[in-house]
Amino acid sequence: TNGSLILQPANLEQMPLILRYVHEFVVKEEFLGFVNCDTGVSGAALAGKITDAVRGWNLDPMKWRGQGYDGAANMAGRLNGCAAVIQRHFPMTLYCHCNAHALNLCVMGLSQIPLVSSMWVTLKEVSLYFENSPKRQQKLESVINSLPAETINNSRKAKLISLCRTRWVHRHTA
User: Fold this and answer.
1) What is the value of pTM for the model shown?
2) C-alpha radius of gyration, the chain, whole number
3) Along the chain (174 residues), what's the average pLDDT of each consecutive run of 10 residues?
């Protein structure tokens, strides 16, 4: 699971749950949904919400082998964090700091460097250049589709996705 709290426009705190699993030797990730954090955001409250949600989806918590969250104390605290509470109940669920979140924090820290900040602006402008013109977007798609598959990792994505500076790693398909 991956839980980072999100404050929704309706002023509700919600936690996204993502299931990562291996199927036929391929790692897969599935977004399961949002869980309302209406009982609080303590480690125990969040652990209860996660466990209840997983059981509600007919998934057996005894088969959990890992859990990943950001490094906030309520999630990663050694004694009372969500990960510690879950691990007390299900000892096979080892905690790992979410690598995507750690990478995001590093990149955002680097954004204080003028050259890196300039790169973000340039990437945004390139994305908007194509996004704001159907003709340019069609030309981009045509050029991408004419490339040999191996030059773009067998991917046929032909549209640039605008950057999200606060969670750029979630937009890696751009």
Assistant:
1) 0.57
2) 20
3) 52 84 90 90 95 91 88 89 94 85 77 86 88 90 81 64 53 42
